[in-house]
Amino acid sequence: MTVWHRLGSTAELMERVPFALKLDRHAIALFHYQGRFRAIGNSCNHQGGPLAEGRLRGEFVMCPWHAWEYSVVTGRGPEGYDEEQVPVFDVEERDDGVYVATPPASPRKLLKHKPSHLLEAHPKPPGAPPRLLGISTTAMDEANPRFSTSDALLEHAVRHASTSRRAETQLISLRELKFRHCEGNYSKASHACTWPCAITERDPEDGLTPVYEGLVHWADVVLIATPIRWGNASSLYYKMIERLNCVQNQITIRNRVLIKNKVAAFIITGGQDNIQAVAGSMMTFWSELGYVFPPFPFIAHSRGWDAEDMRNNVRQVKASETLRGASHELADRALDFWTVLDHHRLELDKPMERAGRKANRLETAGEVTA
Ligand code: FES
Predict the structure, then answer these.
(1) Which residues pair with 270 in a beta bridge?
(2) Structural Rg of the chain based on CA atoms
(3) Strand extents, DSSP E, the chain
(4) C-alpha 359 to ligand 1 mean position (Å)
(5) What pLDDT digit, counting tens, does each position of 56-81 carry?
(6) Structure confidence by residue, pLDDT tens digits, 246-278
(7) Lower Cβ count inside 10 Å, N or C end of the chain?
């Protein structure tokens, strides 16, 4: 049965549009377009973004979370996406005010989108060797490469894991991947930061997929190598970890732990010191993702604050049997620790709660589908 609801006078509503309101069980976004009020469902078909907070460009409102668009007249997406539709509600401007009718005149139409392969697990056959992923985060000009101390130690560690420990190995150099910066969807609303990452879903050119795939689905052990840049890990490292917010955020919003029983360890090198601060910050981040650490989870090299003679730094790392040995031992400790975890997999595979944070369900628009 259709029910008409009075929202207020034209003048009152003109002061407020666009805005969201609830009528019965329906979350509605009210706009003013081409001289008339228009009412559509407030909740985006994608992840429930609040359409009343979107930008109106001509007839289309752009969802503030990941930029899907809908006509405020028909509720449909733009050309090519016009099978997708949010509910449209009848609106009447009468002498005593503006009225909106519920239920909607046309319902929501959700298209079935192909799910991202990043949502699928890729289980390992029983008895398969451990998988170790090395990630290099140092930047350089590929056409004119230089010797990197962190890369060199990472390569030793990965080679050792492959040849002496028979691990399956992969090495990713972030500098070879063209990937976009995190756009801070989490800062809009916790539910706006999605897994898979909204950038990965939307931009086929974005190159971070091997990192997501490697960390979430492939690797048992990950070794991350960074130079020290102004007392911190490299800028490429930070560019990557900002994009990993979507992995951590699944714990916050859904109690869904994507990284379980996986081990991380670190290689940190720099001309000047700050190793402990870099290691501390890396361990904090990777523990938030769900990684655990072997004993002595990092190796590092620095010659101290006043060592600005960088050529000696490079020479020393190149010549150091001790550091080479340390990189092998780091890989060994990480693989050994993973083996212990793997033996206890059944005991460890029970559901996990990340204490101290509540899954925040308050930020979704929460519309009941008409
Ligand atoms: S585009 Fe609307 S929630 Fe993603």
Answers:
(1) 302
(2) 26
(3) 3-8, 19-23, 26-33, 36-41, 55-57, 60-62, 69-71, 88-89, 91-94, 97-102, 131-136, 168-173, 221-227, 263-270, 298-302
(4) 19
(5) 999 999 999 999 999 999 999 999 88
(6) 999 999 888 889 999 999 999 999 988 899 999
(7) N
- 64 CA: nearest ligand 1 atom: 2
- pLDDT tens profile 100-127: 999 999 999 998 888 888 988 878 888 8
Ligand 1 pocket, residue 191 CB under 6 Å: no
Nearest CA to ligand 1 atom 4: 66
User: Contact 328/160 with Cβ under 8 angstroms?
Assistant: yes
CB-ligand 1 contact for 301 (6 Å cutoff): no
Record the pTM: 0.88
The encoded tokens of residue 39 equal 């009412």
pLDDT digits (tens, 9 = 90+) for 200-229: 998 999 999 999 999 999 999 999 999 999
Residue 70 CB–ligand 1 contact under 6 Å: no
- Write the CA distances from 63 to 54, 60, 202, integer angstroms: 5, 10, 14
